């Protein structure tokens, strides 16, 4: 325990204290912001050059959930009963533009650690030492949650949704033939939305840690959260069908419940001395009545200290 306390003291003195905010003029903040944005754009641009060379392979990977299903027990993809679905492009530059879009999105995803690092370095001088201790792990966990949401959507949600939608059209007698732009937009949007959905418990936990919400507040608004999940899903769903709306809304609400549990563990601790003493004789000690002036129409509750 002594070694742990020594390590915490060393961490505070060597890492957190030197980062304490120094008073900077507004122009210095703007210059620093410009420099960090420039570095971020350059890093994303360099990664984009690499991903663009593999854009065709990335598009092929995006096509995997269309006619395959992932089997967790075997850790492999197996073909479904869907017929071969050909892809077409309806504009001369549509195929090229989809490669650019896919390469750009994957470049942004791969460069996310550097982007978060630049954001962290920009905001950390304005944070107190106790805030930095949980904001740092929060940034790391939010990155992992975003990647986990993308992976969950790619391996489970996207194949299920595509198989249902294409099968419905085939059973209705239509011939499946997809535009590359429509399919790529549908797949990328699904991946991004589920990456954000997996951030819901962390966002609720952070708000509880900052004292903005608490568990009774979150429980009180459960039904509104359920309704809000379906409204948000209706806005974010790339297709108007209720099937995909449910695929997004139900996980969103489940993660809201997970956030309630997490908020109970990581809630903001009350300041010492802020809670009333209810132990011993203090709980049975009579409370003196608050004197009320005759011209005051409000009668205060004993012990509340409230005046009109």
Question: How would you concisely characterize the structure shown here?
Answer:
This protein is mainly alpha-helical and 308 residues long. 65% of the residues lie in helices and 4% in strands.
For the largest sheet, list the strands in their spatial order: 1-2
- Residue fraction in strands: under 5%
Shape: globular
Rg over CA atoms, rounded to whole Å, is: 27 Å
Low-confidence stretches: 277-284, 288-308
Structure description:
It is built from eleven helices and four strands. With 308 residues, the chain is mostly helical. Strands 1-2 form a two-stranded antiparallel sheet. It has a two-stranded parallel sheet with strand order 3-4. A hairpin with a 4-residue loop joins strand 1 and strand 2. Helix 6 runs antiparallel to helix 7. The C terminus is likely disordered.
List keywords for this structure.
single chain, 308 residues, two-stranded antiparallel ribbon, 65% helix, globular
Strand-helix topology:
Elements lengths: L1 H15 L9 H28 L1 H13 E4 L4 E4 L7 E2 L5 H17 L1 H12 L5 H43 L6 E2 H18 L2 H10 L5 H6 L1 H15 L5 H24 L43
Parallel strand pairs: 3-4
Antiparallel strand pairs: 1-2
């Amino acid at each position: 325990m002594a070694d742990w306390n020594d390590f915490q003291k060393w961490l505070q003195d060597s890492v957190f204290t030197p980062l304490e905010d120094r008073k900077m003029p507004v122009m210095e903040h703007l210059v620093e912001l410009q420099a960090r944005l420039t570095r971020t754009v350059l890093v994303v641009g360099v990664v984009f050059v690499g991903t663009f060379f593999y854009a065709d392979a990335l598009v092929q990977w995006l096509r995997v959930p269309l006619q395959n299903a992932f089997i967790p027990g075997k850790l492999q993809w197996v073909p479904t009963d869907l017929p071969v679905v050909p892809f077409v492009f309806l504009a001369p530059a549509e195929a090229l533009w989809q490669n650019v879009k896919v390469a750009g999105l994957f470049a942004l995803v791969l460069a996310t650690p550097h982007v978060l690092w630049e954001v962290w370095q920009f905001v950390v001088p304005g944070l107190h030492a106790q805030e930095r201790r949980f904001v740092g792990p929060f940034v790391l966990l939010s990155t992992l949650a975003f990647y986990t949401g993308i992976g969950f959507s790619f391996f489970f949600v996207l194949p299920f949704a595509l198989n249902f939608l294409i099968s419905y059209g085939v059973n209705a007698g239509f011939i499946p033939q997809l535009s590359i732009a429509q399919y790529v937009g549908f797949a990328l949007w699904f991946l991004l939305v589920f990456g954000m959905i997996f951030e819901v418990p962390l966002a609720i936990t952070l708000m509880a840690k900052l004292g903005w919400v608490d568990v009774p507040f979150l429980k009180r608004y459960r039904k509104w959260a359920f309704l809000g999940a379906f409204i948000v899903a209706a806005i974010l769903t790339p297709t108007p069908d209720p099937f995909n709306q449910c695929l997004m809304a139900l996980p969103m609400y489940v993660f809201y419940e997970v956030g309630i549990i997490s908020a109970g563990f990581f809630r903001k601790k009350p300041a010492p001395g802020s809670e009333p003493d209810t132990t011993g004789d203090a709980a049975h000690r009579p409370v003196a009545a608050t004197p009320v002036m005759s011209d005051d129409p409000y009668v205060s509750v004993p012990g509340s200290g409230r005046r009109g």
